[in-house]
Amino acid sequence: MSEYRHEYKYFVPVQKMLCIEQRIKPLMHHDLNADSEGIYTIRSLYFDDYENSCYYENENGTDPREKFRLRIYNSDKSLVKLELKQKHSGKTKKMSCNVPYELCGELINGNIPDISAIDSPVYRKFCMQRMTRLLKPKVIVEYDRRPYVYTDGNVRVTFDLNIRSSNDIRDFFERQIKSRPVMPTNMHIFEVKFDEFLPDFLHQAVEVEKLRQETFSKYYICRKLNMAAVNL
Which CATH class is domain 5-230? Predict the structure, then answer.
């Protein structure tokens, strides 16, 4: 993905989520990477600099802004992605590259990685910021995603369930990690992502007239919770 996309986010109670899901099921299909229940688990390790710039930029609504993360799916260490997510004028862009598992230890431990190890602008930018801004891993964010896809307009509707966080950075690749929930009981995140247009029939199907669009950052809320826990 190289272009900026619309990304609308909503807090949604489980009852409303189920209603929306029933409306879109006949119109969209599950992501092919999902399991038999239409779900996969995402785990991300977010990086920030010595001034916690990403955290405070989220808090202050700075535009534009960006952040780096390592991401795996279903605790599978055979496919690790280094992602750069950028936000500008309400739209988002995500660029990524694959990272060999053997190299991930350097990134997680805060060492200066070999800038020539991966031929990718995302990786080279990460290395430069590691050296100049002292990027370090700060928090793990994990959740279960139920994704739906509609190819026209590159539309994705996702329900992110059981959002949780962990400060146990070195356990990032473990099958199970200690974590704490960050959302109120029975509340989840509903997202609608698309390129230039959202088809009318899908807009009607995901009608959210009683929901308020949020500028929700999973990194920010998980980091805020963990920072509060450390300061107790």
Answer: alpha beta
